Amino acid sequence: xxxxxxxxxxxxxxxxxxxxxxxxxxxxxxxxxxxxxxxxxxxxxxxxxxxxxxxxxxxxxxxxxxxxxxxxxxxxxxxxxxxxxxxxxxxxxxxxxxxxxxxxxxxxxxxxxxxxxxxxxxxxxxxxxxxxxxxxxxxxxxxxxxxxxxxxxxxxxxxxxxxxxxxxxxxxxxxxxxxxxxxxxxxxxxxxxxxxxxxxxxxxxxxxxxxxxxxxxxxxxxxxxxxxxxxxxxxxxxxxxxxxxxxxxxxxxxxxxxxxxxxxxxxxxx
Length: 270
Fold this sequence. Notes:
Elements: H1 3-31, E1 35-37, E2 44-47, E3 54-59, E4 62-65, H2 73-76, H3 81-85, H4 87-93, E5 101-105, H5 111-120, E6 125-130, H6 133-146, E7 151-155, E8 168-174, H7 183-193, E9 194-206, E10 219-220, H8 222-229, E11 234-240, E12 246-253, H9 256-259
Helix pairs in contact: 1-8
């Protein structure tokens, strides 16, 4: 058995064990000192002892990271990003087509939305979603300066991207998902916006690579992403490893009748 196949098999086993023990673990947490279960959604817990880089709220064993505010918008447009993240390589990996309806979740200043708008053309639309109006103001200014007409800013909430139902061909999140304060609800509503067969891409810094110079809570492992996608009508498609620091983990929305079947988010053999 190849080393890659062995690692994927072990990851699948750990993923399955984690799902089976989640209910038991949650019950134990309710009795633990310094841990409080969210009364509105017991999927979440709050812990008194937590990382200073996180908000003290946990989901499926992961602490949620602080959101980067609009005052850090300049970092999104840094010139070094071309080398560090290879945005054109990422965009090529997303396999966009002319006329696509694309959702850029956590659009920020529109760094990716502007580039994608050229590929999908005038018959396509990028919905640039952000929960900060200040970011959307910066997006609008950048779009006006670039003369781009096929990107629409959308003010979302912490639990809903406010996108039309069954309308999106591709939704993608670049270094954003780990900051969602309500990841379960947000994923529910993103899935609602996807067309059947529409794709969802997580682009996250690789937790598996200790050499990636990013704070721990701002990284995610492939296994954790698979775990958090499992409650939703999503099927794992592929994980693409062409970027220097991030992985691209792609799912597709399944038909309603498929959602009730056994989850298929475990990685398939390469």
